[in-house]
Amino acid sequence: MSGPLTGLRVIEYTGPLGQLAGKLLADMGADVVAIEPPAGSPARAVGPFVDDVPGPDRSLNYWYHNTNKRSVIVDLTAAEGVAAWKSLVAKADIVIEDCAPGELDTVGLGHASLRPAIDSLIWCSITPFGQAGPWASYQATDMVGLALGGPMMMNGYDAEDVPGAPPIRGHGDQGYNTACHYAVQGILAALLYRDKTGQGQHVDASMHEACSSTTEVGLPYWFTQRKNVIRQTGRHAAAQRTEPWLHMAADGRHALIFGVGRDNASWKRIKEWFQADGFGKQLDEPRFDEPAARQPGRGSPEAAEVMSELSRFIAAHSADEVYRGGQERRQSWGVVRAPSEALGDPHWEDRGFWTEVSGEGRDAPVRMPGAPYAFSATPWELRRPAPKLGEHTAEVLAEWLT
Amino acid sequence: MPDLPLSGIRVCDLTWIIAGPTATRVLADFGADVIRVEHQQAIDPIRVGRPINGERTTLNNSGFFNYFNRNKRSMLLNVRHPLGMELLHRLIAISDVVIENFSSGVLDSWELSYEAQKTINPGVIYCSISGFGHSGRDKHFTTWGPTAQALSGLTLMSGLPGEPPAGWGYSYMDHTAGYYGAIAILMALHHRNRTGEGQHIDISQVEAGMVLTGPAILDYTVNGRSFRRPGMPPGNHAWEPAIAPHNTYPCAGEDRWIAIAVRNDAEWLAMVRAMGEPAWANGGRFSTNASRLAHQDELDAGIAVWTSTRDEYRLMHLLQAAGVPAGVCQSPGDRVEKDEQFRARNWWAAMPHAEMGEASEFDGVTPRLSHTPGTNRTASPLLGAHTHEVTTDLLGLSNEEFAEYEAMGVFM
């Protein structure tokens, strides 16, 4: 079995902003060639590094985002490199680049210069703000993208918890990730159009638009009520304050409580669980039998009592006990894990989620996340780890250009 | 009709809430015929989700629903009625894609596992999105977006050091599980174009979250370092690459903030000039990235004095003119009313909706395809608005049969 994109040739010329797009295609079978300047992609300079020692082949960020790609050094400032770029582009089905708008075209190497002559070529430019407009040349990092696009203003703290707290940026380069998720949707839509007609096109992917389209009720509230939602500690931004979702457990971790006994059957299971442990004797009173009265946000004394008893119960148990106990009683509860804490959860072993990768500085392969989707016929596959700088220059030039 | 990249693709859309409808929103925007199959007795909760236009819910006046369900059709179908289930089979038979985001096991209980769907439509692409996937010991566990964010590590990666997690102020993983659903379906359609072969795609919302934490996982498996440690998460300071200044700073006015990220010494010098070369910023103390990182609190305090009396948009323009990455923390209202880039790119759209007004509002379709861009064609469908049209045009019912079925309670 091989991936659904087997046979597609992709050229990628990216740094931290665009590198996930090529990974998503490479992991599903496309032949993705990462073109790099002699000093390497700027993504190779992003940590963390193996043993905290920087080096082009030691970036864990690069290891992760460049699986299944091959690396070819092409110096676009030299005549030979310019010729190689043009020859490789002519052989590609898809080009992905995250240069500033117009940057490649000023030297005749961008989509405006090259794509019109190659009718079937799909060329995706990933930029902070899109190819045109008053901010097209503005500079952005991931945080600046998440600020202007809107996510940050919806993340943060209740004033009671952290007075004067700013909007908060979640980590993990989620602005870059979201830009790439949309870019790949556009590339694949263009690919399906090409399947029908043979015609390629340019795909203008903007991180700003992608982030703004990823803020759930933020825009609907403005569209319908001309109202901004307010940010709150560890839960959704909302038009009015809502009850907390995070509760500190006995082991110092937070349990995430998302509704309590919405229907009477699950309420009975929750109540019996509490009571078996000596909590919530008063919950047998008939005034707790009405589901609506128990729900946080209704402001009823019953809801407040349920939440307070729940907090006491959680404070006496580990967050994992609360999570698993709740889920076994059909509550969509969770535990706030550090990313690496999921490595100990056997459910993901059952599904074969983790994959292993090797790289400079470590003899044995190490674990990292695998597939975001399980395809039955054309599965995700790790064929090769992230390439060393220039590892495949000779190989690819021979293969593609002869 | 403009040429759309997915025209001719039909989607039997059994999804609800947000993750599934996000996936089908992408497909619909690019031209697929997305037919929402809805049930009066198990209504999509987002149809009554706030914000509501008006005082009372009508199942058709949710701004939340409208946003996620543009460009789609809606049919009512009672799948508990044998004739309703038979019509669903007919719809599956003529669909390219079947998608659902029920808890795992629901479609099996309808006797519509992938194996069963294949007997109806051998080339079908069946995409399921659930919390934990359709295999594994905890497959019966369930999630909402925030549950998936907590379990995958994303919630913990957002917050100030020493404070509880700030997490995500919206269901980032409902959106993103939906994006992975759309991406997977588009890849599977390409494979089917080449080979005729369909397949099942099993998406776990928690796994889709875990793939967004790769470098943090590797920092643990390679370097033995967990994100749960003193000083982490570092608020709006940079994690990697470690650069300073990198933070949000208060501006004039209530709850106004600007994010500023200085990536190198040249950008720092440009920022110092933009600030008017204040005495505190000149000299050796902040001249290298390493020294700026070492004195980050002092650096932030100096910058905040400069920003706190100034207008956030003017600051952004000033810094950007100097080549320094800076951006206003924009509210939804800012994005719609003040964002010059969105306005210049004609990002906002309006389409008529019977209960949301002549100009119910939307954002555009991104990314922008030069030859066959995605489009805004219709606002969200009224509940069951297309039941007659789908069953008679596509599923072969005559008008008489439609009336009989309706009387028997098949369309509810």
Rg of chain B, alpha carbons: 26 Å
Biggest chain pair contact, residues each?
A-B, 149 and 154 residues
Helical amount among residues of chain A, as a percent range? 25-40%
Strand sequence of the main sheet of chain A, in spatial order? 3-2-1-4-5-6
CATH class of the largest domain in chain A: Alpha Beta
Number of helical runs of chain A? 14
- Helix and strand pattern of chain A: EHEHEHEHEHHEHHEEEEHHHHEHEEEH
pLDDT < 50 stretches of chain B: none
Distance between the termini of chain A: 28 Å
Number of helices in the DSSP assignment of chain B: 17
CATH fold call of the largest domain in chain A: Rossmann fold
Shape-level CATH architecture of the largest domain in chain A: 3-Layer(aba) Sandwich
The CATH class of the largest domain in chain B: Alpha Beta
Round the mean pLDDT of chain A to the nearest integer and report it.
96
CATH topological fold name of the largest domain in chain B: Rossmann fold
Radius of gyration of chain A (CA) equals: 25 Å
- Amount of beta strand of chain B: 5-15%
Element pattern of chain B in H and E: EHEHEHEHHEHHEHHEEHHHHEHHEEEHH
User: How would you describe the shape of chain B?
Assistant: elongated
CATH superfamily of the largest domain in chain B: Crotonobetainyl-coa:carnitine coa-transferase, domain 1
